[in-house]
Amino acid sequence: MQEGPEDTDPTRAADVADAMRVLARERFLPADQHPHAHEDRPLPLWHGQTSSQPSTVASMLRLLEVPVGARVLDVGSGSGWTTALLARLVGPGGAVLGLELDPELAGWGAGNLAACDLPWARIEPATPGSLGRPVDGGWDRILVSASPRSLPEVLVDQLAEGGRMVIPVRSTMHLVERTAGRTRVTTHGSYTFVPLR
Questions:
Q1: Could you confirm whether 59 is annotated as catalytic?
Q2: Which of 3, 130, 141, 162 could be disulfide-bonded to 72 (CB atoms 3.0-4.6 Å)?
Q3: What is the pTM (predicted TM-score) of this model?
């Protein structure tokens, strides 16, 4: 494993910034958190879940390098914000599946997503005891917004050839890339996330 350079592609950064401007965080927060939507810190949802701070979300999305038309899996979709941002990045020719373990939060996040008119994205409850959702050919991109204690091979195995996964492991952001049947893992700074269950 090695330390990787930070992504500095100005076009990619502009795409992420545009998505975050169009899909404001406030739309994905409980009413009592709306006054804090522009603060760069995690905000509480419920049942111990949080809305990640905007700078962290932006860093993860830049690192993920989401192409137009990609198939993307969003693990720990929470309020639906990251699922909506991913949907904006892939466009109508892509597909995004958000998975959330808490059924109540999954339903609320799905409602938030439905209000954004992004029909190529959806949120479903995750299957307890199972990580991700395998698809034929694998996912082009996987975003994980909760922290496992070690890199889950079951998610690595769900990546397509040429795929990328961004996942915080313990407190370190990891980028996993699959190329020519090989897996490359680099680390990209320290962050704090709720544990992956």
A1: no
A2: 141
A3: 0.93
